[in-house]
Design brief:
Length: 274
Amino acid sequence: MQRSDFDADAIVEVRDVHYRIGERDIFSGIDLTVRRGRVTAIMGPSGTGKSTLLRLITGQNAQQQGVIKVWGDDVAAMSRAALFGMRRRVGMLFQSGALLTDLDVYENVAFPLREHTDLPESLVRQLVLTKLQAVGLRGAIDMMPAELSGGMARRVALARAIVMDPELLIYDEPFAGLDPISLGVILRLIQEMNAALGLTSIVVSHDVQELATIAHDSYLLSEGKVVAAGTPAELAASDQLIVRQFMEGQADGPVPFHYPAPDYHQQLLADPER
């Protein structure tokens, strides 16, 4: 894919990407596009490589085949300096929040500014307070991570992710472990941040119902492939068995309940050592 072939409306393009770890194929030719100003959901059963895809997009890992372009540039061909520049335009919210446990809320949010800029302290303070106000936690600046609830920690991590004013925001399982109220808050913030700040967002999750309320585009990964793509409504209306199993939370189907194993009766009668 030449630069002239790049879709001007696309922030991220993934084309025919293959990736394996050892003998295990994680991706066997996936294609997807993340378009400017939209919330793109990447869904799939556990172990399908959703978080791995994020590492490929940000250049932390490299695919064995295919092309990933971010803002029109081939990630695999980037120099270290170019990768650093690209990552400064990307904010990431990790599942765990990944807050620095020995720093209070204020210093956690300020950390990227101190590491990557030479801004005066007055401007650092203004930016930190502005981002904490945006997530509703300006009153928590002196709290330590251990004092925060799971939902509060996720919101502080979001404030840190946007403090450098990124153009692309990546959420890796942002709803995991949250109570319903905190989950609703994070959903609202994703929508509001995308609209108010003019962001483009990638949300990796297996929380189907939640993603359906905020995503413009959805991709469903399974067995190394994109098995379905479209709006959440289009996926919900699909008659593909794998899509219906995932969207409806069915316990058995194309993704089997039982992990592959020898014949049950033969295994019961076999040598008791194993």
